[in-house]
Amino acid sequence: MTQITINAEGMHYTPLNKLIRQAVREGVSEIILDNVMGQRFISDGLIGDVKITINGIPGGDLGMFMKGPTIEVFGNADHALGNTMDDGTIIIHGSSGDATAHSMRGGTVFIRDDIGYRGGIHMKQYEDKRPNLIIGGSARAFLGEYMAGGLVIMFRLHDDTPYAEMGLASGIHGGEIFIRGTVEEWTLGIGSSAREATSEDMEKITPYILEFSKHFNLASSFLLNSSYTRIAPVSSRPFAGKYTWE
Amino acid sequence: MCGIIGVIDKQREFMDGSALRDSLSIMNERGSGEGAGYAAYGVYPDYSELYAIHVFYDNLVEPKTQVEDLLETWGMIEHDEEIPTWEQNGIRKIHIPWRYFFRPKTRLMQRSRTPDDEIVKYIVMEVNKSIKGALVFSSGKNLGVFKASGWPEEVANFYRIENYEGYLWLAHNRYPTNTPGWWGGAHPFNLLNWSVVHNGEITSYGTNRRYIESFGYDCSMYTDTEVVAYLMDLLIRRHELTQELAVRALAPPFWEEIERMPEKEQKLTKALRLTYGSAMMNGPFAIAVASPDSMVGFSDRIKLRPLVIGEHDNRLYISSEEAAIRTIDSSITNIYMPRAGDPIVGRTIA
Amino acid sequence: MIIGSRPTKFQVAIDNDQCMLCERCIENCSYGVFRRDNEKILINSRNCVACHRCISQCPRDAIIIKERPCDYRSHPVWTAQVKENIFKQAESGKILLGGMGNAAPYPIIFDQLVLDACQITNPSIDPLREPMELRTYIGKKPKKLEFVKNATGDMDLVTEIAPNLKVETPIMIGHMSYGAISLNAQLSLARAVSEVGTFMGTGEGGLHKALHPYQNNMIVQIASGRFGVDVNYLERGAAIEIKIGQGAKPGIGGHLPGEKVCTDVSCTRMIPEGSDAISPAPHHDIYSIEDLKQLVLSLKEATEWNKPVFVKVAAVHNVAAIAAGIARSGADAVVIDGFRGGTGAAPTIFRDHVGIPIETAVAAVDAKLRKQGIRNEVSIIASGGIRQSADVAKVICLGADAVYIGTAALVAMGCRVCGTCYRGLCTWGIATQRPDLVARLNPDEASQNVKNLIDAWTLELAEFMGAAGINSIESLRGNRDRLRGYMLDQSMLDVLDVKTIGA
């Protein structure tokens, strides 16, 4: 168990990532990045079992293509964090921007607060690779657009009104979305359908509720005892009927 | 076809132009009487710090006024006069050659490392592109190009070339292929301190022209040779390559040869080829390029044009034919033909 | 049934005097044209797509296929195609899909450009006996080199050249994904490019493990669907290509139907079997040019700056400015796909009506990059309707560094351009995932055919260059002086920066 601290103040992301890669190669198990301010691509394409703690505000594409590491950010994250991420965990003590978890393929992302537009867009799953996006706050429009697999759970911790953002799960053809409380009927995008979560569903999401509560030091009972709406695709082939052959 | 002859005296001892006239005339079979010219370095010692700008005027009214307005916008004309000429049977004096000794206002071009040169380059491009009836054909310091349509001896006598004394001479006897013989099309081509004589045709001209134009040069002479002067200016003055590296960029070794080089040289040569692929010259050529302290000769990569080198004491000769060298220096013994693409460089040491 | 039956597109006939009832036509036709009835082969012409598989396998040349044996009343405006499209849409209310590239009869600019040859004033070069260099490097080049003088007075190079692909002939194979084409087809192409010393694209369907031995000659693609994309995939590619658009369908996404997503395709794309593979129209992490830069740099970061990154766009009206933006984004090459680019399936209305031809696009892009002094920032790869070596030579003269071929390589493997790829029944084993059909394409033979094609074009290219007195491909690139326009109008000549014949 070795730990290093890197002062990222004023550092460009390429040398920063080089230092991180070097440390991982040398077997460092925990890296603390202080004074992060807008550096993009932190941990981009990084493979390994390492814990990276970020103090500050990382730039876009945090953990892109990442395979394995755990990143915990004490601050907000920018857009497209977890982009095409393969495996590992990202925990954000704050909010994140648009296209959070874009095309994510595996691993889990926990966001304590809100996320921007098009969260979880085109997340996809394959065999045991299932991405999870857990949102404490709320998401803007087009959550789970084009979604092809994986799991999105949204708690809307401080809001009990029905969810009301357009284009929810528009074009979804795989995976599922759970939203605490209810959703307005008009929010549902093309190819999606909603129903109340069953007890089986609750069993599926309980581990994520527990883990979320643990990361952010919250009592889990409130979340466990809430009711949820499940949004899923009507078909794995939403646009099959749109075309005719020449 | 075309004939070229160049000579440099490494101790900067002066030669008058008469020997060059005789030397060029011995190669009259290589020409067609449609163009000849001489470039001489060291001919204006009284004005050596000023740019000697030679202009062909169609008349001395509108074009001259416009050129002088432009010169005075960018600097000062310290002296000007008509270049003296003497009537020859074979030459129709359709242009009036004029020369200016010009001092640029350095502060007007602050972003360049060589602001005076940039100003003069700009003036040359601007006149040749935009002012009808005027053509700048020489623009360096302490050097002059003298050329016209005619046979070598006629052009030499037209300017009385024997009255000029230089330590470095280039001369050219033209057999035009693609453009009719006109005064501007005769060699040497000059820009700033670069002068070029060329035998052959550059088949990559379309590529080279578009490349060099993207760096702010304008090819306005309707012939391939001018790009060589501009490429030399770009590679050596602006990109600060040595003469040898510039030649290697323009006539690079084949990939196969590069792969046989030692690692360091291989890396460098590959970098040159990658970076200057569009500057590389193709087709048959033998070229001599002069600058105030050097003369470089080189041929195309597969040696489609003749190139003969002579060395004797302080003098280096570059020519299309051995006879032209021997006409100047009958006692010379060291005469050889260089490898294709290899630069032959003569530098002044005084 | 208001509209009723339309005339068959093809009429198939068997010369019974010749037919020996070997039934090869029945075995080979996956569209169900033939069946055996006692001593006769019965024919259902309506099912025929003119893929000519039956003709190629018939030992007696007994099969004859005629196009449109019974046509509509001819009319210059209301053509058969127009009417049939209306019939179909009136019956279905749906978007029309078609296979292969642009089928509208636009004039082909390549065919109105002619190449130059030397006569007297400079010698033509004999490429069989003199050196002829077709090798080219794809990637970013510095604008100038920096040197320092070392202690011995020699010049030491300081500039580091960014990674470039070394391509032995300027002919590469474009991106056709596993899914769109079969594994045997991809294998054949991969072997061919490895042997020739050139490259092929994976398409956006991931990299099947059977192709790993050829990965040093493969350009991995990352498209909006991000199928099959992980670090391992990025690391395997010789280069990475971001696909923004495609000439056959600029501005719209892609859609591999679930029936083509078999076990193997699913595994390579990393999506569940039978699920549609939908590529969104845009990359949802690119909504602006600065986002493109972000994706380019993220790929470079992920692969530790060891891989060139290409960006592929469809040739659209403003392609020159777009390419300039790409050049400034940090990308190493821009791929321009003209409106004749092929595809497995595209809405025909897009295929035939959106985008511009590759000739004008390359000319405009090359000119714009030169004007901005950034031509060395990127290589230009031209694709979309490259049919023969003359097209390669012409598009290089117009400013391209290299080309991608697609359809031509498929034709080398037997494809008859029947345009029915979207059915997944390709009798040649190319555009299908049906195991019995895929098995028809033998990679040993097919790779040789593809290699032969590239070799033959390379020889012809060397001949063109030799005739033009040029012994290195760099001197052909952007050399528009070696082209002339034949019956092109002045505005077109201006765009191409080419003189007319006779000038």
UniProtKB/TrEMBL annotation, chain A:
Coiled coil spans: none
Family annotation (Pfam families): GXGXG
CDD domains: arch_gltB (cd00981)
Glutamate synthase alpha subunit C-terminal domain location: 26-186
An MF annotation (GO) of this entry: oxidoreductase activity
Superkingdom: Archaea
PANTHER family in UniProt: GLUTAMATE SYNTHASE ALPHA SUBUNIT C-TERMINAL DOMAIN-CONTAINING PROTEIN, TUNGSTEN FORMYLMETHANOFURAN DEHYDROGENASE, SUBUNIT C (FWDC)
Name the UniProt record assigns to this protein: Glutamate synthase alpha subunit C-terminal domain-containing protein
Origin species: Methanospirillum stamsii
Automatic annotation (TrEMBL), chain B:
Domain Glutamine amidotransferase type-2, residue spans: 2-350
GO molecular function: transferase activity
Name of this protein: Glutamine amidotransferase type-2 domain-containing protein
Record lineage: Archaea, Methanobacteriati, Methanobacteriota, Stenosarchaea group, Methanomicrobia
Top-rank taxon, per record: Archaea
Keywords: Glutamine amidotransferase, Transferase
Pfam family, one: GATase_2
Active-site residues annotated for this sequence: 2 (for gatase activity)
Species in which this protein is naturally found: Methanospirillum stamsii
Record InterPro entries: GATase_2_dom (IPR017932), Glu_synth_lsu_1 (IPR012375), Ntn_hydrolases_N (IPR029055)
TrEMBL record, chain C:
Necessary cofactors: FMN
PROSITE patterns listed in its UniProt record: 4FE4S_FER_1, 4FE4S_FER_2
Family matches, as InterPro entries: 4Fe4S_Fe-S-bd, 4Fe4S_Fe_S_CS, Aldolase_TIM, GltB, GltB_archl_type, Glu_synthdom
Domain of life of the native organism: Archaea
GO molecular function: 4 iron, 4 sulfur cluster binding; glutamate synthase (NADPH) activity; metal ion binding
PANTHER family: ARCHAEAL-TYPE GLUTAMATE SYNTHASE [NADPH]
Name of the protein described by the UniProt record: Archaeal glutamate synthase [NADPH]
Species for this entry: Methanospirillum stamsii
